[in-house]
Amino acid sequence: MNLNLPSDINAFVKALVSEGRFDSEEAAIIEGVRMLMGREQLKAEIQVGIDQLDNGQHLDEETVFAEVNAEIDQVESTQQGS
Q1: Each residue of 55-79: b (16+ CB within 10 Å) or e?
Q2: CA 21, 76, 64, 36: dihedral to nearest 10 degrees?
């Protein structure tokens, strides 16, 4: 896949690489796409929760926070392994 990025985005990606934050422009773009994928997944999960609330389904706050913290831990361990 070849991408033609707008000049401001291209400059931003190049700066990230030159600052040593990424090994390559490709690695920076991949990370950006992964973040976008995560955002879309989160939006879908939020919609599930909204639908559940609309149907009268809900959990107590302790259960919710335990699940959220477990998911954060999983995401962080996955990102560290990348």
Answers
A1: eeeeeeeeeeeeeeeeeeeeeeeee
A2: 50
**Residues whose CB falls within 8 Å of the CB of residue 75, separated by 6 or more in sequence, listed in order:** 38
- Give the position of tokens 């985005």: 9
Structure tokens at 21: 């934050």
Model-level pTM? 0.63
Q: For tokens 């401001």, what's the residue? A: 8
Q: What distance in Å separates the CA atoms of residue 69 and residue 13, rounded to the nearest whole number?
A: 31
Among candidate residues 26, 24, 31, the one with its CA nearest the CA of residue 1: 26
Structure tokens at 46: 């939020």
pLDDT means per 10 residues, the chain with 82 residues, are: 93 98 97 97 96 89 93 90 65
